[in-house]
Design goal:
Layout lengths: L3 E8 L2 E10 L11 E5 L1 H6 L20 E3 L4 H5 L4 H10 L11 H8 L7 E3 H9 L9 H6 L2 H9 L16 E7 L4 E3 L8 E9 L5 H19 L9 E3 L2 E5 L3 E3 L5 E3 L1 E4 H5 L10 H11 L3 H17 L11 E4 L5 E3 L31 H19 L8 H9 L2 H10 L7 H19 L3
Antiparallel strand pairs: 1-2, 1-5, 2-3, 3-4, 6-7, 6-8, 8-10, 9-10, 11-12, 13-14, 14-15
Helix pairs in contact: 4-5, 10-11, 10-12, 11-13, 11-15, 14-15
Length: 442
């Protein structure tokens, strides 16, 4: 007998059964098990060929063609709880918090019921509903202080964020929604009709001063990103040791109701399974050119982010902290920036993961980068036999060079922009080096 799960997609104010994934391999293999996936026939006919928010991912448009792979679909791997959330949920279901691949399927069926984006596993959503408990709201101060009542309520949901046992370099996160009464509720417990604002709340953890500094700098880092012209959603707010991050995958309608926008990581966008392997910047840019509505704008945004990551020493550029967003009108683009912080401070010594092919050792040559993405654009254009030029060089160069004076402003006035003195001083040479590189870009 095969293990199967049902995938639901939120569109037009309702959840729909749109597809199923069947394990052909053993559940003990975890995400490495062979799978067979297919869209529901009714959904396939209603939204044939759609690759926007009606699809599970952009690489598998809606249709009758099945998806058979030697591993789980990457969009399903994206839905698998990781890090702190994985550990706490494993404890909740009676498994070791350090359990490996063998518990992935079991974890998916309880932990993927309320994910970022517009997908969920039906069986996990049912498990959440059965274990929801009483509806209870809390003030912002209750949450920020992690008061006793709030912590006990979270514990009843298997979320233990109040203790001091976690000195590891991980931040527990919870999804909270502000309701029409002004209070904050666990997101999955609140009806959409009462939702006003949606947040990811990230909590400080442990006593390491470097981790505390990283958390304190996320809000000013996002403000600086906005100054540098990056795509930013809304200001972040640090209250005590709780960082309130407004969500950009949720839109509350003027008359009530919530639109959930599709979101997929660049791991899914490039078809890269697992957690260790990462695509190159070249592969990601090719995927953006191939799938995004406005390739020119998205590639420029992507290049700007890489420059700013290097300038502000945010080295943690793995395949799940950049994503694309898909609405229901055929628009596909990069999401606003997220997970942007001074990760050079991390005590574990985070290394830059995603790199440019043969152009990322010591110093990136941005002229070569621009040449490379133009080559990729031309290759996709020729493949499609299209007259439309996908990537034009001059606007890319102009867009990147426009960042130079703003980088110099950050280097000179970082403290006034919210950086602490030691961080501002440490970053200054790196920021100026990137500005100098852009000055020579031709």
């Amino acid at each position: 007998m095969y293990e199967t799960c049902t995938l639901q997609l939120h569109a037009h104010n309702a959840w729909h059964d749109v597809a199923s994934v069947r394990l052909l391999g053993s559940a003990a293999q975890g995400w490495k098990a062979k799978t067979y996936s297919g869209y529901a026939v009714e959904w396939a006919f209603a939204h044939a060929k759609a690759a926007d928010g009606h699809a599970l991912c952009v690489r598998w448009p809606v249709g009758l063609e099945a998806l058979e792979q030697d591993h789980w679909p990457v969009f399903l791997i994206d839905m698998l709880p990781q890090g702190f959330g994985r550990q706490e949920l494993l404890r909740r279901i009676g498994e070791s918090p350090t359990a490996g691949l063998g518990v992935d399927w079991k974890l998916l069926l309880v932990g993927a019921g309320n994910t970022i984006g517009n997908l969920r596993v039906k069986e996990a959503a049912m498990w959440l509903a059965e274990n929801a408990g009483p509806l209870r709201g809390f003030t912002d101060d209750n949450v920020a202080e992690r008061g006793e009542a709030f912590s006990e309520y979270l514990a009843s949901h298997g979320l233990f964020v109040a203790g001091s046992s976690g000195v590891q370099g991980e931040w527990p996160k919870i999804l909270l929604t502000r309701a029409d009464d002004g209070l904050l509720y666990l997101d999955h417990t609140l009806p959409d009709a009462r939702a006003v604002e949606h947040f990811i709340v990230k909590f400080g953890r442990g006593a390491d001063p470097h981790l505390a500094s990283i958390l304190r700098h996320e809000a000013p880092y996002m403000d600086i990103a906005r100054r540098l012209g990056l795509r930013v959603h809304a200001p972040l707010a640090l209250r005590k040791r709780a960082l309130f991050i407004p969500r950009f995958d949720r839109i509350v309608g003027a008359g009530g109701g919530v639109t959930r926008l599709a979101q997929e990581s660049v791991a899914t966008l490039t078809g890269m399974p697992g957690f260790e392997a990462v695509p190159s910047h070249d592969q990601i840019c090719e995927a953006l050119i191939r799938h995004c509505t406005d390739p020119q704008a998205e590639v420029l945004e992507y290049l700007k982010r890489d420059i700013v990551n290097l300038a502000l020493l945010n080295k943690d550029n793995h395949a799940r902290n950049t994503a694309v967003q898909r609405n229901f009108d055929n628009h596909i683009s990069l999401t606003p920036l997220y997970d942007f912080a001074p990760m050079y401070l991390h005590p574990d010594g985070i290394a830059r993961r995603i790199r440019w092919d043969n152009n990322d050792f010591g110093q990136t040559n941005w002229t070569r980068v621009v040449d490379r993405v133009c080559e990729l654009g031309t290759a996709v254009q020729k493949e499609r036999r299209s007259k439309r030029v996908l990537i034009e060089r001059a606007p890319l160069v102009a867009g990147l060079k426009a960042m130079e004076p703003h980088l110099r402003e950050v280097a000179d006035a970082g403290q006034a922009m919210g950086l602490e003195p030691d961080v501002a001083a440490f970053l200054r040479p790196s920021i100026l080096a990137r500005a100098d590189e852009l000055a020579t870009l031709v």
